[in-house]
Design a protein that fits this description.
The structure is a single chain. This protein is an all-alpha fold. The protein is built from 14 helices and no strands. Helix 6 packs antiparallel against helix 10 (about 265-290), helix 8 runs antiparallel to helix 14 (about 390-410) and helix 9 (about 250-260) runs antiparallel to helix 12 (about 315-345). The chain is globular, with a radius of gyration of 20 Å. It starts with 18 loop residues before the first helix and ends in a 9-residue tail after the last helix. Mean pLDDT is about 85; it is low at about 1-10.
């Protein structure tokens, strides 16, 4: 395996991270407080209040990601073209913030449109934001920077879910209703609270971040996959195989409810998952700076495969709870590390385009991934499907295949800052 070949001489310090990394991390922290309060409970709201089936939920989730992914492709390229990342990211965060109030409408079409708008905002912001982080840090600390950003992002998710848990507990105690399903009043209250951190997220980026001049600016070529290099194309091909088995986490939430976990249990499960994810991300990023990105990603995908097989075989509520907690290890090991690896293997002036392509392809493939998962679970038309375990067996198998392919790949790392 090719390593980055740069072992730090001193112990890395988070305090040494530049202002942009901190600003972007605070922005992600606040936005995830807002989003995770709502998005994790949205499939339960659609199923319990609006009586929507899993196949339709799969279409809504997949279509939201896929349509927004076209903007991820464009916004990354545009940030390279404009040689500026910040204001595209601000625009994306702003759109996501503005979509939040519409989740209070008890209409599946409005909910679907709001979910799509939220993902459009994510599509606009994600690639310029990731490129801004990559532009602001040297290669020797790149894993740490992306790991810290993921940790802050996930800490926000953890806090958001804790707030949702408190709201659920208090409102169900006051009303005396069952905590086995989500009520419309509870969900609406959570949406209203989510508006405050959404606004803070936008302000954090506007005030705290600034565009960074990349040293080796060159004329941006016309968008073409081949301009991103052979190494990137191989990596994105392997990631695509993994992604086809990586359906929306909404199906894990529905699996938990299917196994008998009540609403409080599901919310607590999400809290502990995000705690594990947050704690793992920064150490994993630092480790990838020392031993190479590929090993961390392979390890994360293997963990994913084992966990998804466990979801398929689960028979008790606590099985899903424990498995989902360990699911945080996969995210902590693989997510931020993949972003750091992309910065290692593409030309410096093409980072925005590379992140746009990566995020775009992953997002587009999330649509068939979620549709496949929903169809395998519930079927379509007169076909009844294979039942709840099927999408998880499929996801585990695809993760194993992708890990094997990544193992035999030997990428060439750019030795630049």
């Amino acid at each position: 395996m090719t390593n980055s070949g740069n072992t730090p001489q001193t112990k890395p310090s988070l305090l040494s991270l530049p202002r942009n990394v901190w600003a972007v991390s605070f922005t992600s922290f606040f936005m995830d407080i807002s989003s995770e309060m709502v998005i994790n409970l949205l499939p339960l709201f659609m199923a319990n209040v609006l009586n929507v089936g899993t196949a339709v939920i799969g279409v809504i989730e997949g279509l939201a990601e896929a349509t927004a992914s076209l903007l991820k492709l464009f916004s990354g390229w545009l940030s390279d073209k404009l040689q500026g990342r910040k204001w595209l990211a601000v625009l994306g965060y702003g759109i996501s913030a503005l979509s939040k109030p519409f989740f209070i409408v008890d209409n599946i079409w409005v909910i679907a449109a709001s979910r799509w708008s939220d993902r459009v905002g994510k599509g606009i912001r994600t690639s310029p934001r990731d490129a801004l982080v990559a532009d602001s840090i040297d290669q020797k600390r790149r894993g740490m920077a992306f790991g810290f950003h993921r940790a802050a992002d996930t800490a926000g998710a953890l806090l958001g879910i804790l707030i949702a848990l408190v709201v659920i507990w208090v409102m169900h105690l006051d009303s005396g209703t069952s905590i086995n399903s989500l009520s419309d009043n509870t969900f609406h209250t959570i949406v209203y609270i989510s508006l405050v951190p959404a606004v803070l997220a936008v302000l954090s980026l506007v005030i705290g971040a600034k565009d960074t001049l990349v040293k080796s600016r060159r004329a941006l070529p016309k968008f073409a996959l081949k301009s991103l290099g052979k190494e990137f194309l191989i990596f994105i091909g392997i990631v695509s195989i993994f992604t086809l088995g990586n359906s929306s986490d909404a199906f894990i939430v529905l699996r938990a409810q299917d196994r008998g976990l009540n609403l409080i249990g599901i919310t607590a499960m999400l809290v502990v998952f995000n705690l594990v994810y947050s704690l793992i991300s920064t150490p994993a990023g630092i480790l990838s700076d020392r031993i190479g990105r590929k090993r961390l990603i392979i390890g994360g995908w293997l963990v994913y495969g084992v966990i998804y097989t466990g979801f398929a075989l689960s028979s008790q509520p606590w099985h899903v709870f424990v498995l989902y907690v360990f699911y945080g290890i996969y995210y902590g090991m693989a997510y931020g590390t993949s972003l750091a690896l992309i910065a290692d293997i593409v030309p410096e002036n093409m980072r925005g385009t590379a992140y746009g392509t990566y995020n775009g392809i992953v997002g587009i493939l999330s649509f068939p991934a979620s549709v496949i998962a929903g169809t395998l679970w519930q079927g379509i038309g007169t076909w009844k499907g294979f039942g709840a375990p099927a999408p998880f067996f499929f996801g585990g198998g695809m993760a194993l295949l992708a890990a094997i392919l990544l193992l035999v790949w030997n990428p060439k790392i750019n030795q630049v800052a």
